[in-house]
Amino acid sequence: MSTSELALLLQHSDTTARSVIQETAAAAGLMWKCRWSLCAEYNIKATELCPHCGRDRDGHPLRDVQPGCWPVEDELWENLRTEVTAHLRQQGFDPLPDAVTFPWVSDEDAAPWSLTRLVLHYGGIQRDYKIHLERTEISDLLEQVAEAAEPSSYEYLRILPR
Ligand SMILES: [Zn+2]
User: Fold this and answer.
1) How many whole angstroms from 23 Cα to the centroid of ligand 1?
2) I need a labelling partner for 132 at 20 to 30 A (CA). Which of 19, 40, 66, 105 fits?
């Protein structure tokens, strides 16, 4: 069953049928139940973060995601956080988003993460953010993170501004 077929099935079910379908779909691996007890919503398989509360599959709130096989030095990571936060403030984001995700783009560039299409997180809500961060302090720091961490293909980077 495809995601859209499952969505259609849920759309056309009453409350009782809905919970049976959701539980069955979760057992079959087509959905997952948010583990945060205050939320406990069912989400489709492809969703990484719960769109209802913004937590991940383990029920953890949004947090930094450092890609790669090797840990990044704290000082480098905190410099990245400072620059990302300063950038968002300069752009007038108030309140600041809960997190910023730099999606993977290519391993051919010095920094493998997108510098033009980011994702801003506000709890469970995700917004695309188009910007140009080429040749900035942020792109320099991302290059250094890539060099230190040696990320694998398709590993995104997420950082919480502060
Ligand atoms: Zn949730």
Assistant:
1) 15
2) 66
At 143, which amino acid appears?
A: E
Cα(59) to ligand 1 centroid in Å equals 7
For residue 99, the cross-strand partners are 121
Note the pLDDT tens digit of each residue in 65-86. 999 989 999 999 999 999 999 9
Contact status, residue 71 vs residue 145, Cβ threshold 8 Å: no
CB 89: neighbour CB atoms within 10 A?
Answer: 12
**pLDDT tens-digit series, residues 110-154:** 889 999 999 999 988 999 999 999 999 999 999 999 999 999 999
Q: Report residues near ion ligand 1: CB below 5 Å.
A: 34, 36, 39, 50, 52-53, 55
